[in-house]
Amino acid sequence: MAEKLNILVWNEGVHELRNEPATIGDMYPNGMHGAIAEALGAHHPDATISTATLADPEHGLSEETLANTDVLLWWGHIAHDDVADEVVERVQRHVLGGMGLVALHSAHFAKIFTKLLGTTCSLKWRNEGERELVWTVKPSHPIAAGVESPIVIPEQEMYGELFDIPEPDDLIFISSFAGGEVFRSGVTFSRGKGRIFYFSPGDQEYPVYHHPQVQRVLANGVGWVAQPGRHRAQPVVTNPAREYFPN
Fold first, then answer.
1. Which phi and psi angles does 135 have, rounded to 5°?
2. DSSP state, 240?
3. Which residues partner with 10 through β-bridges?
4. Among 5, 29, 143, 150, which residue's beta carbon has the most beta carbons within 10 A?
């Protein structure tokens, strides 16, 4: 019997508080984190799904909370620097110990993402509401299961290469934009015992998280990075004594 997942959707929540853009309240009345959590609930009905924001005590990412989280989804954009370093180090420790991380859209610049990947994670961008086509290039990967190719997103912020990330473990999706750019929009990494999935579609100015195919990708990503029941500890390097193997 499969273990039930504990999923935490984290959103800085600043756009919602500032009502920027003015349409965000209509698109996401419960915040982007609320929309993502609701979509995940439809795909993972047995999961326990909660949300947290930057304004919560300890950003909603206490030691106890993380210890009970199988998968953390992270959305950030304009408040990366406001995330406390001690919280970032705490999240990193749990990812290295086996907690799954799904980084969304502008979370490519989140402290936790750049810390885990070790590069600038910078990219080209242009926000003119262009059509995005998300092409599946590794259909055998579980994250691509049941996903249309391409996913057609009518309006989205353009992200383009070069995307300054390490070589991914898996390149699952590549996006193309009306302006001609392409982007590695769905990639995976492993760090320590943890699995990481980055998926770029999802700007605050467009209702992308209501797109059924985007929701399916996120649900698949959660299922893949999750390792429920795994003992949460960072890998340990030991130096065995001489004569480790007896004669």
1. -95, 135
2. P
3. 52, 74
4. 143
